[in-house]
Amino acid sequence: xxxxxxxxxxxxxxxDPSQKTTPLPRYGRVIWILAGEASGDVIGARLMQALHAxxxxxxxxxxxxxxxxxxxxxxLFPMSDLAVMGLVEVLPRLRHLSQRLLEAVQDIELRKxxxxxxxxxxxxxxxxxxxxxRSGIKRVHYVAPQVWAWRESRVKEFPGLWDRLLCLLPFEPxxxxxxxxxGRFVGHPVLQSGVRQGNAQRFRLRHNIPADAPxxxxxxxxxxxxxPRLLPVFRKMLDxxxxxxxxxxxxxxxxxxxxxxIRQLIRKWPIQPHIVTDIHDKHDAFAAAQxxxxxxxxxxxxxxxxxxxxxxxxxxNPVTATIAxxxxxxxxxxxxxxxxxxxxxxxxxxxxxxxxxxxxxxSRLLSDPQMAEKQRMAFAEVLEMLAPPVGTPADAAAAEIxxxxxxxxxRSSSH
Length: 415
Description:
Belongs to the LpxB family. Keywords: Glycosyltransferase, Lipid A biosynthesis, Lipid biosynthesis, Lipid metabolism, Transferase. The protein is about 40% helix and about 15% strand. The protein has helices at about 40-55, 65-70, 95-110, 120-130, 170-175, 200-205, 225-245, 260-265, 280-290, 300-305, 320-325, 335-340, 355-365, 370-385, 395-405, 410; strands at about 30-35, 60-65, 115-120, 140, 165, 185, 215-220, 250-255, 275, 290-295, 310-315, 345-350. Helix 1 packs across helix 15, helix 3 (about 95-110) crosses helix 4 (about 120-130) and helix 7 packs across helix 13. The protein starts with about 30 loop residues before the first strand and ends with a helix.
């Protein structure tokens, strides 16, 4: 696909407040998109392609990562600046995040786009939508905030924040409708991930891994605040497993932007994991893997698409964990388990996220084919629930956005 044009003619990546009253030159209808983390960058890139297919004259601006930039988006600032998770972890970065929020608002005011799309990252995205509420610009939030899981009270802050809410999970529109908000199910982007095109033999040949060596996927998270908490536990777990599985081969798939951080954190490990940054190599790794340990979130659905048996594990700051336990309203944290309505994959969280417990779980996953097969059968059931009524998830989302974009301005406001 050809690069998509940028709406700014001067190539600057930040907005000058003194220039707010002079809009930048425009070449077509402008859609300003925000993605705040690796998964949002993937969703954003597919959305840009789907939108461009429906209207080739569209111009894109905003914030995104490597995949969106490969399609011509000149990111206002590095997307990695926003990839922070945890109530305590975010505190040291509040001033920097506030500055980035101001820059985003100023850029929108300067460009005067026809529509703003925010993708996930509710901590930043919803504040941005609130700041531009009076601008008259149409707004779409893509990936409904998971208020059904925790802090349901936030729902009362939502009216007026967007003109359309796009939901990834089939139960979300009904949940929001009961609370007076409309949501539209567009299917889950994981269905377009291409995971099932992975080739196990190709992966083993490329990385010189023996045919009988067990491959274990380790997914410590894409945010800078996640990996430093999980990786030390993974290292000690591998020390334990090496006794039983001397040729165990760990693989860590990560977004390119965080790969240098991961390499630094694992540089002294006795067993050196293979760091995978290419998306196709990641899918090959899934095909070659016998099992995985992953943090909660979309990665569980990716692994389910790849038919990789897994356990979910997570460790955050103890203060964050204490607060979260009081606020979380769902019985499971793994998306696979939530959709299935039962524990399909084991969850080893916080105090249970120890080297010994993780080693025992990986050993079970490697040695118990019945456990693995039971998971795979449940994966098929869960993934079937995630398909949109027609077409791909990106096409469904793009259709909703184009529908709103083509509405008269007077009808677009939901407040």
